[in-house]
């Protein structure tokens, strides 16, 4: 169950971050409210997951997966270009998260 909460926290954060572009600098009400709600939900779920998962592991997974997912969404839906160096950076984030999980004691 804790990892399901973490996955849902990641999904909420990724949705909220992806919607940031649609807020037009927080000048559009509904996208802005959706962003706020997404972040509140994400932190709530992350906090619940932290009852059972070490913070170092949970935050690394949450931020790393979120970073990789938002970069892919930006490239896919917003036409943002990712070069070889950016893809290598995303791969390093993922490797770092995996290494943190290998050292955890849960």
UniProtKB/TrEMBL annotation:
<keyword id="KW-1133">Transmembrane helix</keyword>
<feature type="transmembrane region" description="Helical">
    <location>
        <begin position="84"/>
        <end position="102"/>
    </location>
</feature>
<keyword id="KW-0812">Transmembrane</keyword>
<dbReference type="InterPro" id="IPR037185">
    <property type="entry name" value="EmrE-like"/>
</dbReference>
<comment type="similarity">
    <text>Belongs to the drug/metabolite transporter (DMT) superfamily. Small multidrug resistance (SMR) (TC 2.A.7.1) family.</text>
</comment>
<dbReference type="GO" id="GO:0005886">
    <property type="term" value="C:plasma membrane"/>
</dbReference>
<dbReference type="InterPro" id="IPR045324">
    <property type="entry name" value="Small_multidrug_res"/>
</dbReference>
<protein>
    <submittedName>
        <fullName>Ligand-binding protein SH3</fullName>
    </submittedName>
</protein>
<keyword id="KW-0813">Transport</keyword>
<dbReference type="GO" id="GO:0022857">
    <property type="term" value="F:transmembrane transporter activity"/>
</dbReference>
<dbReference type="Pfam" id="PF00893">
    <property type="entry name" value="Multi_Drug_Res"/>
</dbReference>
<dbReference type="InterPro" id="IPR000390">
    <property type="entry name" value="Small_drug/metabolite_transptr"/>
</dbReference>
<keyword id="KW-0472">Membrane</keyword>
<keyword id="KW-1003">Cell membrane</keyword>
<feature type="transmembrane region" description="Helical">
    <location>
        <begin position="58"/>
        <end position="78"/>
    </location>
</feature>
<feature type="transmembrane region" description="Helical">
    <location>
        <begin position="26"/>
        <end position="46"/>
    </location>
</feature>
């Amino acid at each position: 169950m804790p990892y399901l909460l973490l996955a849902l926290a990641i999904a909420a954060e990724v949705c909220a971050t992806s919607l940031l572009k649609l807020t037009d600098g927080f000048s559009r009400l509904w996208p802005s409210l959706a962003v706020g709600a997404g972040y509140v939900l994400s932190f709530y779920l992350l906090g619940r997951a932290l009852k059972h998962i070490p913070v170092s592991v949970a935050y690394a997974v949450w931020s790393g997966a979120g970073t990789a997912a938002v970069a892919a969404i930006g490239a896919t839906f917003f036409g943002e270009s990712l070069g070889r160096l950016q893809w290598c950076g995303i791969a390093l984030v993922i490797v770092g998260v995996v290494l943190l999980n290998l050292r955890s004691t849960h």
